[in-house]
Write a structure and sequence with these properties.
Number of helices: 13
Number of strands: 8
Oligomer: single chain
Pfam family, one: NAT_N
CATH class of the largest domain: Alpha Beta
Strand order of the largest sheet: 1-2-5-6-8-7
Shape: globular
Distance between the termini: 41 Å
Largest sheet: 6 strands, mixed
Helix content: 40-55%
Domain N-acyltransferase N-terminal: 3-119
Domain GNAT-like C-terminal: 121-268
Protein name: DUF5596 domain-containing protein
CATH topology of the largest domain: Aminopeptidase
Radius of gyration: 20 Å
Length: 275
């Protein structure tokens, strides 16, 4: 039988994070109360977390305990242990993000992280998939999808490269996992789909290969996601962005020359095998 400590190792949580969870600052009774509240009233639980002395650390302890408690429920739904663990590994990614930003153990972006812990999205190989309904009709040169049809929103976890084989495998897994649910399309809204990247990256780029899986039909400039993801933060002083990687150098030069990189929007018909 798996223990909490073994689970934390399985999802790759670093030692400092494991120590924090296994020897929590919060009393066990308080953690159990919050865990029950998280099951019953998510918003009330998050508000309660904000009152703790170290909210991000408390969230790490609570979310780890909750994620561990969900194993049997996921398996009972016919979800494999590998998919369960891969999905719960989002805890580790947000722990790492918290460490980079604050230098202290914890997790950030609670609302987003709970999508994984509560099973509102699943990770299948390299990509995450979030079921939902299409909010606005989409028309491309080849396809038309009316508002309200079922879709899978694709998210790209920040823990690996975009190897073509991994992307193709993940899409195939999604078609099997979600088969029979009347999904019409897979959709993605990300800086990785920005058409501007064709002016920045070489043709051999794995990012451009990732784009080729989609029919990119638009671009949204409401948020400077590319800068946040590539440089670690958004700054109005573009000249101060770091140039440690070739992507950072190329993007910085593009921005300094007056270019803009938005968030591209792309679709993949659910029933279509590509690549």
């Amino acid at each position: 039988m798996s223990t909490l400590e073994h689970f934390l190792t399985e999802i790759g949580l670093p030692e400092a994070g494991r120590d924090c969870v296994l020897s929590p600052a919060l009393p066990q009774e308080r953690l159990q109360t919050l865990c029950s509240l998280l099951e019953q009233d998510e918003e009330a639980c998050l508000q309660a977390l904000k009152t703790e002395t170290e909210p991000n650390e408390a969230a790490l302890c609570l979310f780890s305990l909750y994620a561990f408690s969900q194993r049997e429920a996921w398996l009972a739904r016919g979800i494999s242990e590998q998919i369960y663990l891969d999905t719960m590994r989002d805890l580790t990614l947000w722990y790492q993000a918290c460490m980079r930003k604050t230098g202290r153990p914890g997790v950030m972006e609670w609302d987003w992280l709970l999508n994984s812990l509560k099973g509102r999205l699943v990770r299948l190989g390299r990509l995450q998939y979030e079921p939902g309904d299409l909010e606005e009709a989409i028309r491309t040169d080849e396809y038309s999808f009316p508002k309200g049809v079922r879709k899978l929103e694709i998210h790209i976890p920040a823990d690996g490269k975009l190897e073509p084989e991994q992307i193709s495998s993940s899409l195939s897994q999604a078609r099997i996992f979600f088969a029979g649910n009347k999904y019409r399309l897979m959709h993605c809204h990300s800086w990785l789909l920005s058409p501007a990247l064709h002016r920045i990256l070489p043709p051999s780029s794995k990012i451009l290969n990732f784009q080729s899986f989609f029919r990119v039909y638009g671009e949204d400039f409401s948020y400077r996601q590319a800068e946040e993801r590539v440089f670690g933060e958004i700054s109005d002083r573009t000249e101060c962005y770091p140039e440690h990687t070739s992507l950072q150098k190329s993007l910085k030069a593009f921005l300094l020359a007056g270019g803009r990189v938005g968030m591209g929007m792309g679709v993949i018909p659910f029933s279509e095998e590509k690549h």
